[in-house]
Amino acid sequence: MITQWFFTHVDRRGGIAIALLVAIALLVPLSNLLLPQTSPLHIPTYLVSLIGKYLTYALLAVALDLVWGFCGILSLGHGAFFALGGYAMGMYLMRQIGPRGVYADPVLPDFMVFLNWKELPWFWHGFDNFWFAALMVVLVPGALAFGFGWLAFRSRVTGVYLSIITQALTYALLLAFFRNDMGFGGNNGLTDFKDILGFNIQAGTTRSMLFAATALFLALAVFVSSFIIRSKLGKVLVGVRDAESRMRFLGYRVDRYKLFVWTISAMMAGIAGALYVPQVGIINPSEFEPANSIEAVIWVAVGGRGTIIGPIIGAVLVNFGKTYFTAAFPEIWLFALGALFIIVTLFLPKGILGLYGSWRTKLADRAARKKDSAPPPVAAENVHLPEPQAAE
Amino acid sequence: MRLNRLLSVFILMLGFCCHIAQSNAQTVDDATLRPLVQALAGDNFENTTKAISDLVKTGDPRVSKILDALSAGDLYVAKADKTVFLGKRDGSDYAATDALTGAKLDPVPRSAAEKIKVNNRLRRDIAAAIGGLTLMSDNIAERRSAAEAILKTRDPESIPLLDQAIAVEKDAGVKALMQQAKAAAVLNSDAADDVKIAAITEVSAGNSRAALGLLTPLENVQGPVGEAAKAAIDSINTKLAFWNAIQNVVYGLSLGSVLLLAAIGLAITFGVMGVINMAHGEMVMIGAYTTFVVQQIIRTSAPGLFDYSLLIALPAAFLVSGGIGVVIERGIIRFLYGRPLETLLATWGISLVLQQAIRSWFGASNVQVGNPSWMAGSFDLGLLTLTWSRLWIIVFALSVFAILQLVLKKTMLGLRMRAVTQNRRMASSMGIRTPWVDALTFGLGSGIAGIAGVALSQIDNVSPNLGQGYIIDSFMVVVFGGVGNLWGTLVGAMSLGIANKFLEPFAGAVLGKIVVLVLIILFIQKRPRGLFALKGRAIEA
């Protein structure tokens, strides 16, 4: 029953991905916690946190792909939603420090004592409660995305214009969060966390649990994305992506569809940020950097936009590359990343998964040709006719 | 109060002494001076007064030192030969130095010398004489600083001196300053009300901020003086507010010019090709580095040309950035037409590569780009002090704008570019080779960015991140102004610049910028295609 319901909403690839993620969520913590350190299968805690970080990036990429890959909205500001979710979680973690801070103030976080603040600003109230903070993790990015999207989509801001103002949005937030009097720790952001839900945040068990939570949330995101895409609403979204005006003429309220998926995506990004912060141990305004948001776009592009698991592959691969290069050849990393942007847009418009797909069709073609040795079919696919457009 | 005044006189005198010590005013030989110094030891005060004025008339710089000593009671006369010397008590003797030359003399027993007596009247004369010595100095800078010093101390004692000096002063600027000083001194004295009111008028005609300082203490004085002061303060405040607004506008225009320079190339490429060039900021950066390289070459091979280095750098930067632009267009962007979002990503990749290339080549830190002499310094406009670089950048941006307008309106390339902007397919059908127009447009836009880099190298740090700082602002200008029309870019850049500068005093630089960004995001809702949107069927694809 349940499996049948499940598979009506998820395709085979999505199913495999979800199964894999659930398996990882179980096996990695088990390996970290139960196997002895000498065992070749033991995963050290730092690696658990590192992969956990990649998976939060993957979650951000899935969220971005939902709007870009399926609805054609290229957001250059998804890092803002990610960071806002992260800040909401960071505020909870800050409140959990309590009197253990350097200044030992029972209520005020250290940076407020340092700034000579006498009481908690109003927007910090409630964040001592985990569930309130968890609610804010989705509500704040969701509300911002809703307001922004409502304004933007209703007045039909599309294409590069939209991309540019999403970038302006995250840039404005970057500037705002750098200010000390905003009450979010300014330049230094929020850090020095002690525990989460009563567990020591440095402990191996907590790290493993955070990892498991990330993997499970990622699985959930894959499911939700698939659910949306395979629904009728998803078909409309793809229609909007491919021919927005036509969908509008057909009578669909394009702006509402866009707004819905945009808000959902922002909430997912917020969750990704919230899972990122306890595993990395810090959140600061640099997360709002426009460059970060654009980097997230390349994860999606590398993996394959418009596929559900492509972004996960892209995010993990690119970030693995980043970790490796920035340690081994720091001066080469930007060349590599820049080249990646160029190569993927020029030669791999469908990303790695697209490459895999065309390779499979080619194999199938060859097999078919061998079978009946008929004249080869005209390879009509993958020919990109230049199609000039003014400003779409 | 009196102590204060004494102190101020003292400071004044000290100040004058320093001035005199530094200056090379006329000197008189010792033979003429010696008898005059001897005359100071006259037998009554009247003779001494006469001797003082004789000494002052010589204008010798040493005079003030001697008068100082006299006033302080350090001048002695030997009973035996009546020589005047500078003495200092040293046990039962005076350690003596020659009053004129400062040469050390034999110690004189205290009983063998007599102090030259001075009374208060004499002291006042001496102070006046010393002040007059500088106020009447031949050196214009000395006179100016003497007047400025009085303007600071506002000592009423110096009024008669100032009167004398004003009567003979020839330099208009110094004369005005002296009159200011006199008025300030009058306000500080117990002169009659009508004199004071005249002085208030005089003061408020001068430097407004200084005048505010002079008038504020008088504001609460009862009677006509207080009222006059209040009225003067009000009018000065209005004037200051006015000039403040002017300053905001001028600063805003210069910020707007920077934005215009950075954005105008972007507007062209975006207008013609519908392509957002994320590497545009790097073209600016490359222009700035070209300036650096040009200056390095000039420094080593032809230092005399340094003042022309910017003029040489302009075409160089245009060619380098423009050339790179054409290569990028031919090599990458032309394969991505019709896919603006992918173009955006690819150009972002290009920008990363260019940044890292410059960083590997020139290092990550700032390079020093020099200012030619005609960019340095400042000039006054009303109550404003403006740097030349600020003015030049406005002039430069407007000339670039004008030249670009000419290119677009009067050349064949411009005609084709406008045609492609309005309707690419139709232009292509009419025989315009749109790919070439694209390549040249991209080259032109990048070249303009390079030129902007030359200008920005004069006002900003030249580092590999230079372009990043401008890219978002340039986008905002283009989005705000609309594409396909350079006037939109001009109006967009200038209004953003001015809005930023007007918001800064209320909200601080950062918050002001945030407010502007938010306003633009809201503005886009009303005018999704910017202020000066192209109209027509071809635009909405």
Automatic annotation (TrEMBL), chain A:
- GO CC list: plasma membrane
Q: Which residues form the signal peptide?
A: none
Cellular compartments annotated: Cell membrane
Q: How does it sit in the membrane?
A: Multi-pass membrane protein
A Pfam family: BPD_transp_2
Q: Where is this region: Disordered?
A: 368-392
Keyword terms: Cell membrane, Membrane, Transmembrane, Transmembrane helix
Task: Write the lineage as a comma-separated list.
Answer: Bacteria, Pseudomonadati, Pseudomonadota, Alphaproteobacteria, Hyphomicrobiales
User: What are the recorded GO MF terms, alphabetically?
Assistant: branched-chain amino acid transmembrane transporter activity
Q: What is this protein called?
A: Urea transport system permease protein
Q: Which InterPro entries match?
A: ABC_transp_permease (IPR001851), ABC_transptr_urea_perm_UrtC (IPR017778), LivM-like (IPR043428)
- Source domain of life is Bacteria
Q: Where are the transmembrane segments?
A: 15-35, 55-84, 130-153, 160-178, 209-229, 257-277, 297-320, 332-356
UniProtKB/TrEMBL annotation, chain B:
Q: Which UniProt keywords apply?
A: Amino-acid transport, Cell membrane, Membrane, Signal, Transmembrane, Transmembrane helix, Transport
Entry's localization field: Cell membrane
Keyword Phosphoprotein carried by entry: no
* Statement: the UniProt record of this protein carries the keyword Magnesium: no
Give the UniProt entry's GO cellular component terms.
plasma membrane
Q: Which domain of life is it from?
A: Bacteria
The Gene Ontology terms for molecular function here are: transmembrane transporter activity
Membrane topology term: Multi-pass membrane protein
Give one Pfam family. Answer: BPD_transp_2
Q: Which residues form the signal peptide?
A: 1-21
Under the heading InterPro entries, the entry gives: ABC_transp_permease, ABC_UrtB_bac, BCAA_transport_permease
Which GO annotations describe the biological process of this protein?
amino acid transport
What stretches pass through the bilayer?
249-276, 283-302, 308-328, 340-358, 391-408, 435-455, 475-499, 506-524
Q: Which PANTHER family match?
A: ABC TRANSPORTER PERMEASE PROTEIN, BRANCHED-CHAIN AMINO ACID TRANSPORT SYSTEM PERMEASE PROTEIN LIVH
Family listed? Belongs to the binding-protein-dependent transport system permease family. LivHM subfamily.
Name-wise, this protein is Urea transport system permease protein
